[in-house]
Queue: 2 jobs
Job 1
Amino acid sequence: MSLPEQLQKSMTENPAPVHAEISVLEIELSGLTMSAKQEEWQKIGVQKIILHADKTLDSQRVLEYARTLRQNGLQTELLIPADLRNEYDDPTGLRLFCRAGTDAEVEELCNDSKLCGIELIYTGADAVSDFVKAAQRCKAASLEVRFGCSDAFINASLEEIRKIADANERSPYPVGMNCMRAINSCFIAADGEVYPCQGCRISMGNMKETSLHEILQNSTVFSFYRNFREQLKKPCRDCAIFGQCVGCRGRAYHATGDFLAADPACPRSEKEHDKILSLPIRDPANYMPHKPPMLMVSTLHTVADNLCETDCTVAEDNPFLREDSTLHPSAFIEIGAQSLAFLDTFLHPGKHLNGMLVEVMRFENKKEKIKVGDTLFIICRKSYEMPPWSIGEFEIFRDHANGKPVAKGELKVCQFSAAEKP
Ligand code: SF4
Ligand code: SF4
């Protein structure tokens, strides 16, 4: 049986493994559009729902919705803005958190016996010390304070984070405030986009188009975060408290472009911050098994969920050049394959993966003349993966901002780690 036939057989007989289980979901409620999904949530193991309400919502509808969830056996928490708490006077057994913005609001909320908890939102370097101290002064026995995120928190510098650390006795290294939400739950925004957490805005899919089960099952980000002990990078991975803390995933992603990177604003790992790499990556030779002139892809610009963007500038010694100095169309297939390989080697640092291109499908070439010195932009998407097999799509553009691709296609690859290589 040929390799393409083996691949087809293997994919038919072995559907992708089910790993899409999650116990906590956070949902932004604007519009209450996701009500039809309850059955599906329970099917994938969800036990707890945290509903994020906002000022555009009618509190009675929110409460009604939350009660329905609870009656269906889901633990339910409501997270509401601090200034709306009077509208939720009667949460009837629901756990009620308030999202607090200022020191005064925290003080006031701490004395409010109706509350189960407060979610603190970092409002900026000047306010944060007082803000955290206000929460610490809170004497209410039942009060649970948890730290939320905001753009200000995610973009906070090392200096600002150190101030939070100094002010916060409960958690000496409050990098992600020991927040494990990207690891333990996921966040559904009002428009249906699914993210690892509220601040880590890597789209894993949209619930208006795809079921949550399918989104989680096919998401590399979801799967890598579930296996965070093997996947997150140093210095977090070598840290003594790794596992209780994984850094703020939102900040790591937004600061470096790499969702597996260590948190670059952690005082604890300060001396090793130069080891944290950021995209774009311009030294492909350090990642890829190919060597020039065969190595054609020059830069890895972005990595998202099952997706990457690279570029390639055509060199004078490119082995695919024809006599008229234009690129032979077979080069596009190699460029697509190298881009997919770049994504893999970036996600698996230190592991040199050896692969073999098994089949090219739906290849289209617009027959444009690409010459020495031209730069091409490549978008690659992994559409299927079940080791050692994978399928990826690629599109190659002259101008990635607009315009049609000059070539595109689908590649089936068989990939072995060095140890497994036959
Ligand atoms: S890990 Fe996510 S939820 Fe937690 S603080 Fe960071 S961005 Fe916010
Ligand atoms: S090095 Fe990473 S795991 Fe350790 S405290 Fe800092 S952010 Fe948390």
Job 2
Amino acid sequence: MQPVYAHDLVKRSEISRVLVIAAHPDDIDFGAASTIAALTASGVEVTYCLVTSGDAGGFELDHSPEAMIARREQEQRDAAKVVGVHDVRYLKHLDGYVEPNHALVSELVALMRQVQPDIVISQHPQRNWDRLQASHPDHIAVGEATVRAVYPAVENPFAYPDLGHLPAFRIGQLWMMGAPADLVNLCVDITDYVDMKLEALHQHNSQHPDPAAMDARVRSALESNHPDAGRAAEVFHVAAINDETTFAGF
Ligand SMILES: [Zn+2]
């Protein structure tokens, strides 16, 4: 697959707003931080939505859930800042208990109608058997809830009558992180943004007992996503929902 540059996608498809939805603090940074950095560098406004605050993560057992929530929310805000994102929302669902039910779908619909993104980036609703760690049950649940919100609920004015005050809105595309390999259809060259991704990942101090080992793993994964030696890429499964323009390259 021929890699493309984020700034070319932004120009070609007139992307001005992107909403990124994930289950836990650090999911976005592992899946898409370099792409986000490239998008914000091209003038795109990006909002993050974390469905949980990651209260079941980390390695230190001597903390209260409240302390862990406050710490991880701050870590995610700091990581977002590294890649040019200043709007980070938390839905405060319980880590490990996320379900793709109507309560969550309607919260996501409300957020999409408020933010009005051209593109939604989220997690993949299908289990990746080659890399089960990418398919935490919360990730699959968030992916499924996001797909249900993106179509048809967000664009149907009769869906969720409680949200009637927020006008129905059409999303252009859904980009899914952590996709099974055979579904990947977008490869973004992020060679210039690898260091920024690592810096963002380092903000999640509570999660990484060995940052040097993580850096090596992340670099090699990004390099293996790119067909050319010495280059790096992040990959997505893109579903077109209402895009008038066509992205070249995939
Ligand atoms: Zn996660």
